[in-house]
Structures are given as structure tokens and as C-alpha cells.
């Protein structure tokens, strides 16, 4: 039976809202039915809001994997630019699909025609699509800048707290800001508290909560960053700023942000632009300029007075801790225990336990950890690894020997011979079918069975290659660790707080904390330039009685897993 798949893509949020991808899908399905075929919903691969200039898209990745496994026979796409806006990427994908004997059907182009005229048409369409995208983006950018310099509100898509946005359709062709008096009164109070009464932002937030004033989204908890943004926004003195952000190279974060996809929709990140480059558009003012300037002066004075205490050496694991339960970051905190000495107690807690962040509701109930004890246990584990890197290899070999995985039947050379034999048989079978020596009913089950056998052999070959690569990676990891540790091995016990922090940030990727275990993920790639290849993970159990941590009971197991983005990952449970 012929397996049919379709691929559709839209790149902008506006296209998602207008549901243009549904029209693509429906048009493709109509064509599939017209061709006398059928399609399962499992084989509909849709990328919503992903740019065509980037090949890393979730649905496209799944589609390419399925094609590599020999699952797909025919692929329907609306047009070549839905596959990619770049001609070079189109050629890469079409060549990849062709290597797996997948027929690609474009609704406006017959990809089965392999002649110079058809190839020229495809090349021209790809280059025109790439040129069109660049031209549209440049015209759009320059057009918005020109409109902003003319004072048009049309370039702004939303209004901040205190205003209502009147779009150009409602405003007879010209967008505008309209003051919402109830919200504007809150803005005036906020600026007066900071600029005239010289209150802190924290006190202003408490005053808002005491007065039962809700946020724009109807919440009774005002976030500090929201208040800071409002106090620094020049729109309230009658000058809406345009061009505060610009796009640039994508920032690679240590971990994906909460509730966000690991594969970014855009291959760029947004950067702040200097205030001198902003374009100001006149809007109705809520406060006068003198009060706005007074607030800016007060914010600077608060910063100079250091309302936030100078803490110096604070948290050794800052920026490395992640909650295993909710994937949110752990942050540090201090409190004074109620005793005669008023001991300062430092701890790490999951940000999901802060109900004030989520409208009075805790999103996670993971326990907080004693900062001193956690830092000691993580640092001791890192020291053990640096003093004896070879233990990784010993435990790795032990795990391979104890593994219950079924042995691979055959050597690499014998499996390679089987692969060549099956590929030759498939080629001969296809030739026999094209020359009409065998019928379709006889050809389809035989070719499907042979492809399944070929796929099985290729999987066995991949297992052997992966095992060999893991051995090489392990040797590289050990040698890299040995080179790194030989320079610092004799001074590990006498390092300063700052040296410990630098080493931790250099070789530790993150520390995952669950209710009864911690999981240290090591960044053991090229330690001289913090590149990307390899990580290790170590699990350590602990007990929480009075904040003390349990000791290691010995290494029990090692298992590995291949990750596309992270290379080799090893986990050592202790």
C-alpha cells in the first residue's frame, strides 16, 4: 500500500491567526483525493510559525526521519517555497528525498519531470522566493521606519497599560492611542509615589495590592519587572518609542525557557537598541515630563543608595540549578532564623514555589535545599571526577558488560555485505517492475519486505557504529578531563570561592534537583573554549533532615543516550 504524507508551513503569527495553513492543507488533500489516494492524519506534518529560512523545524524533522526509515512513498507540498525559502535548502531536501525513492508532488510544479527545463523552472522559483523574502523584509523595515518618523501610530501594534489601541480600521485609516482614565489614574499614582513620595518599587507594589488594584490581565499581583518597565516607558509623558529592539544572531540558552519549544521558531534573537536610536511618536500624555524625569532620577538614586544589599560572595551554584519536577530555575535566598545569634540561613528554592509570581498559586511543591550543604556535595563530586577521570571509563565498561541488551548478530563486514546485497536486490526488483516483468500486486509486498530487511540491517550497522563512536568519545572525554585536571589537581582543596565558581561554570552544564536526588550534568567538551560536544550526568542521593546531605554509597550503573543537539550523555547513579 502506498503511504502518502503532506507538509505545510506558515511563517508569521498573522498567518497563524488567519488560519492560512488550513487552506494549504485542504488544497493538498483535495489533490490527493483527485489522484485516487488517501492520507492518514498521522502523516500530516505542519509547522506553524516557523521561518522558511531555517531547516530546524519540528514537523520537518519528523518528516525527514520517517522518510529515512522508508515509511513515506509520496510527499505532497503546496509549493517549493513552503519547503524552504532558500534555493540551496530546497535542493538539499529534494536530493535527500530522492535518495529514499520518495516522490515529491508540488501543486504548481511536477517534480517527477527530470529534464533541464523542469530543473531550471524549480531553480528559478527557489531563487525568486529567496529574493522575494529578502525584498519584502527590507521594504517592510524601511516602510515602518518611514511611517514612525512621520508620527504614525500604525507601526505600533499594541498599547501599554493606561491606553487603548485604536487600530486603523476603527480609526478611519489611522491608528491612535486613547487614554483609559481608570488605568491612567493608577499610572499617575505610581509615578507620584516614586517621584514625589520617594517610595521604593517594593513599597509601591504593596500599596497597589493594598488598594486592590488589578493588573491589565486582572491579576492582583504586580510583578517588579512590570513596574520597572512602566516607570521607564516614555509613552506616559507623551512620547511612544519605536525601534527599541533589533534582531541579531540567535542566543543559545543553557536550557529552553519554560513552556517553550527546544527548536526555536526563528534563527535570530532580539536585542535592545540604544535610546539615542529610538524614534519617538507623539501620543496623549498621562503625566508631565518633569514628573517622569523626577522618577528617573529617583530610580538612579535608589540604585546608588544600594537598597539591594551588597552581598559579595553569594551563591556558588547560581544559574546552574534546575527543578527536576517543573523545569523552572532554582534561585538563592537568605533568611534569619529566630534564635539569639540570629543565624543567616542560605537556601535554594524553586521559583515555581513563589505564589506571588503566579497569582497566589504555587506551581511546584519541590523542597528548598540548604545552600551550604548543596554546594559542598556538588563540589565534592566535581573534585572526585577531576582527581580520577578514569573511573568514568571503568564504570562505562562495567555497564556495557552488565547490559541486558540483545547481542548484535554478525560483524560489521558481514552486515555491510548484507546491506549491499539487499540494495542490489531492491534495484533489480525495481528494474523488473519498470520493465513490466512482474505485476504491481507482486512487486509491492516484495519491495516492502526487502526494505524492512534493509532497514533492520542498517539499524544493526548504526548500533555498531554508535558503539564505536561512543568508545572514541569516551577516550576523548577522559583525555580532555585528564589534561584539564592535571593543572589544578593539587590545588583543588585550596581554591578560592571565585576559582570554584569558575571551574563549576566551566564543566557543569546544570544541576537538576528532585525531591530525593540531585542530578549533575557535566559539560565535558573542549574545556579550553567551552564548546559543545559532550556531557556527563551524576546522580547523588541525599537526606533532608536538618538540611544535611547523605554520603555516596557507590556507583551502581551507567547508561548512555544519543542526543542530536548535545552529543554523548552519560548518567552515573550514586
Offer a few descriptive terms.
DNA binding, 15 helices, 19 strands, 6-stranded mixed β-sheet, Recombinase_CS, 42% helix, 574 residues, disordered C terminus, alpha/beta, 17% strand, 4-stranded parallel β-sheet
Terminal Cα span? 50 Å
Rg (C-alpha, Å): 31 Å
Beta-strand residue percentage: 15-25%
Extended strand count? 19
* Percent of residues in helices: 40-55%
Strand order of the largest sheet: 11-15-16-17-19-18
Q: What is the count of DSSP helices, taking H or I runs of 4+ residues?
A: 15
The SS-based structural class is alpha/beta
The best one-word shape is flat
Mean pLDDT: 76
Unreliable runs: 524-574
Largest sheet: 6 strands, mixed
InterPro entries: DNA_bind_recomb_sf, DNA_bind_recombinase_dom, Recombinase_CS, Resolv_N, Resolvase-like_N_sf, SSR_resolvase, Zn_ribbon_recom_dom
GO molecular function, one term: DNA binding
Organism: Cysteiniphilum litorale
Keywords: DNA integration, DNA recombination, DNA-binding
Describe the structure.
- With 574 residues, the chain is α/β, with parallel strands linked by helices.
- The chain has helices at 13-17, 20-34, 58-68, 80-83, 87-99, 116-149, 181-195, 201-210, 224-232, 289-304, 371-387, 390-402, 412-434, 440-486, 497-507, and strands at 4-10, 44-48, 74-77, 103-106, 163-166, 176-179, 239-242, 245-249, 268-272, 279-282, 321-323, 330-336, 344-350, 369-370, 508-513, 517-523, 535-541, 557-563, 567-573.
- The strands form 6 sheets. The protein has a 6-stranded mixed beta sheet.
- The chain is flat, with a radius of gyration of 31 Å.
- 22% of the residues are buried.
- Mean pLDDT is 76; it is low at 524-574.
- InterPro entries: DNA_bind_recomb_sf, DNA_bind_recombinase_dom, Recombinase_CS, Resolv_N, Resolvase-like_N_sf, SSR_resolvase, Zn_ribbon_recom_dom.
